[in-house]
Design brief:
By secondary structure, this protein is mostly helical. The chain is built from three helices and no strands.
């Protein structure tokens, strides 16, 4: 299989485009996983500041007031 046939397969057939989309999804998921692991390793066990606003807690307080 030469380069021209490979290019035609990847960009001009449904199967080739599906392979490209699948490969992009796999690469994106792998990259996201690796970056998330790295971020957790760098910022482990950091407490939230006291003035940190938590949307979920605020929503629960609003719901409690309405009941």
């Amino acid at each position: 299989m030469d380069i021209g046939q490979f290019y035609t397969f990847l960009f001009e057939t449904y199967e080739g485009v599906a392979c490209l989309v699948g490969a992009c999804l796999v690469v994106t998921l792998l990259l996201a996983f690796l970056l998330e692991r790295r971020t957790r390793r760098i910022y482990k066990d950091r407490p939230a500041p006291e003035d940190d606003f938590d949307e979920l807690e605020a929503e629960e307080e609003r719901d409690d007031k309405h009941d």
